[in-house]
Amino acid sequence: MSSEKNDVPAWEQRFRAARLSLPEWADEAPDRSLYVSNATGTFEVYAWDRAADTHRRVTDRPNGTTDAALSPDGAWVWWFDDTDGDEFGVWRRQPFGGGADEPAVPGLAPSYEAGLALGRDGTVVVGRSTDEDGTTIHLLRPGAEQPVEIYRHAEYGGVGDLSHDCALLAVDHTEHGDAMHSAIRVLRTADGSTVGELDEVTGHAEPRGLACLGFAPVPGDSRLLVAHQRRGHWEPMLWDPLTGVETELVLRTAEGGTLPGDVSAQWHPDAKALLVEHEFEARSELFRYDLADGVLTRLDTPRGTVSGATARPDGTVEFLWSSAAEPSAVRSTAGTVVLRAPGSVPPGSVPVEDVWVDGPGGRVHALVQRPAGEGPFPTVFEVHGGPTHHDSDSFAAGPAAWLDHGFAVVRVNYRGSTGYGQAWTDALRERVGLIELEDIGAVRAWAVASGLADPARLILSGGSWGGYLTLLGLGVQPEDWSLGLAVVPVADYLTAYEDEMEALKSLDRTLFGGTPQEEPERWRTSSPLTYVERVKVPVYISAGLNDPRCPIQQIENYVTRLEQLGTPHEVYRYDAGHGSLVVEERIKQLRLEIDFARRHLPQ
Q1: pTM of this prediction?
Q2: Which of 61, 479, 528, 529 has the fewest Cβ atoms within 10 angstroms?
Q3: Which pLDDT score, from 0 to 100, does residue 257 have?
């Protein structure tokens, strides 16, 4: 006897099951929190009063809302209001307990979002990005009617953090023109003058990145927590911009070794310790680092991926954890589940197997999941986006759906991925798109030779940068793939550059060493449209009509060439931006992809 739930396929249950982000809490009102959930079928912002254990939906928009923040006193919920997912909008705010929305910063026109800092004294700093003005940062003092501009530059930048007394503002910027390696400038909020600068690109033979992690959260402490790449991977250090003193932190484990992967950190509320997150080879773990004695203590986190963590005033740490086999949960180092999503827990999935393959640039790490039965299997190479991102041992409804349908799933952390050192990430600039495909090709060869993958049923698939690599791979490696599924891809790179948001233009100029006019051959060589005549297999493309990252016109250009060439293809266009926040829309899109694969792959 089956229930209504049991009539719904497991893969759809995973999408429809309610999910939660890690709750953010107000600095001066720890019982007031904010999180994002899809409990109503669309990802929206929720306010959570921990003392009363009441939850209230703050936003209710057809295409969902995810960007939000709490004021330090917990009185206001800020949320970013764009149009149908186009990422171009303004900040609004609403009382924590409920009420009408109001413009949060009157006088600022719509823009792309470039950071937000809310000070304890009511000071507000808003970062904006537009094609016309580049990056501008605006300061609104308590009682003032209009904000004042405190920073402006044509290159991309953003708000870092406000100091505890709101006298200092940290800005992450790329004025040197290298969007992959930011610099940090600290300004006086009183007059916009520069207090200090950290720049490890200008005048350096080998550029290193810097990132603002936040000012010390206690009165009278001007230290800034900074991430740096001085030893070839991300590590934290302390910098006092008022004195210029830098304190590098060498984090040693109980065994005396150092952490081999990328390391990020945040302050504990008393500024006496740091909460450290270590990412290495597709997994992550948490530590406490005591600043007085330099002791690094591992926190009890299961093997898998921590997607976010926060240190609470009572000394506990809350974190969002999952693995490929087990759905996410908001947990605490106190041994409790902090927050449960309403409704049933989604079905689990298949654990990942780690595979290392020799590639042209070094060993390539792949995450492999096998369905039930004996191989070789039809196999989906699910290529991650970013491009500076990485696949991890974390729960994902998409790969789990393919496994349910009898497909093996392979995810490759190609050169350009994070978590394997700066050299691996920075290799992305050598031959954009092409080096990633070399690594994916090496793993493909292993998958076929090992008996995992059926060479006649190989799907190249991905979204965003993964969609770009899918279309590029179908043209560059036409004999290797049986079918392509490209979601919100870059398809015609030259046209994409003209239409995309300014932040991505800045990144693309860095990747290619200049604009399409300055480096035409590099752009042409890395554009999928260049190789469209070589595509031999059916192609499925889905695209958001309001996407500012992979705009629709450049996709239409590619589709037009497919039509002219008579290449089998299907296109699905939806009225949103760079992906959808609506659960049923996500299910629809994946159902269309699976159906396309079933119709076009040999049985």
Answers
A1: 0.96
A2: 479
A3: 87
